Inverse folding.
């Protein structure tokens, strides 16, 4: 009896988390104040992390909180503060575009979910173990089932992206840069 | 797992994906479009984890894909925000309708 109740509690928890994620996501995409939109996005991402906890993949849940909530949302909020008056409302999308996108999204959702609904998923055998030590070992193994090469590739990508960010965001006065180029050209001529 | 059929979790991720698509269609502000992309990437991550856990529980490939997607999403967000701030410096606006120099 108690076991049965436990199962139901887990199910209820899933539906609560799902409603939370979808509600916050929908509000993030429809509210017209950009700062509120960022905060709703934050709640939605926390909800996704709760879903990972519910699925018992704790490492991914922790990474989700650290990277998305602690990193990306903070970056987005910073850029909102740097570029917008956060109190002002964004202009409304034209009615035509809103209706067209609602229909596009609804039909896309209907077709995709029809495919999922009709598909017969065959669950595999084996026990699922996403312990941190197993993930870490597999991440740095070079042999079968190892992910050392993608790990290195992604770390180089991350480094390149960070350097690229600095270069893009660096403040250069265009006149000065032009002057330096001309100077360099002149010295070359000489 | 615990009585929830896999199609319900896929319903959640599909709905999240199309909410993100709706935001991408209707918004014209670069920061909110970036938020929509983050929602879409999250729905993909949910799919990877759920498929790994339910359909191939003996392997961890979906988990690794999720980790790499999160990393690339972080890099993408950082680069996008650098570009947005630079665009704001030169145009005084981050509306996509205002940045039309490269439009053919």
């Amino acid at each position: 009896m108690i076991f049965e109740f436990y199962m139901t509690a887990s199910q209820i928890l899933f539906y609560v988390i799902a409603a939370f994620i979808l509600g916050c996501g929908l509000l993030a995409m429809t509210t017209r104040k950009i700062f509120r939109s960022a905060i709703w996005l934050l709640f939605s991402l926390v909800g996704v992390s709760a879903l990972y906890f519910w699925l018992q993949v704790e490492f991914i849940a922790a990474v989700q909180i650290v990277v998305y909530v602690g990193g990306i949302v903070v970056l987005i909020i910073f850029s909102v503060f740097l570029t917008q008056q956060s109190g002002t409302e964004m202009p409304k999308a034209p009615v035509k575009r809103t209706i067209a996108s609602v229909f596009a999204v609804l039909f896309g959702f209907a077709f995709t979910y029809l495919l999922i609904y009709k598909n017969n998923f065959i669950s595999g055998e084996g026990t699922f173990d996403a312990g941190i030590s197993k993930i870490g070992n597999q991440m740095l193994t070079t042999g079968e089932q190892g992910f050392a090469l993608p790990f290195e590739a992604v770390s180089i990508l991350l480094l390149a992206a960070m350097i690229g960010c600095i270069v893009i965001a660096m403040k250069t006065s265009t006149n000065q840069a032009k002057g330096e180029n001309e100077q360099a050209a002149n010295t070359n001529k000489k | 797992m615990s009585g929830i059929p896999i199609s319900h979790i896929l319903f959640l991720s599909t709905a999240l994906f199309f909410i993100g698509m709706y935001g991408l269609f209707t918004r014209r502000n670069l920061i909110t479009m970036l938020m929509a992309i983050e929602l879409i990437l999250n729905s993909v991550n949910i799919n990877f984890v759920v498929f790994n856990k339910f359909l191939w529980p003996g392997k961890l490939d979906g988990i690794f894909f999720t980790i790499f997607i999160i990393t690339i999403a972080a890099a993408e967000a950082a680069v996008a925000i650098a570009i947005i701030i630079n665009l704001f410096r030169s145009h005084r606006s981050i509306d996509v309708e205002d940045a039309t120099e490269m439009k053919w």
About this structure: The mean pLDDT of chain B is 90.
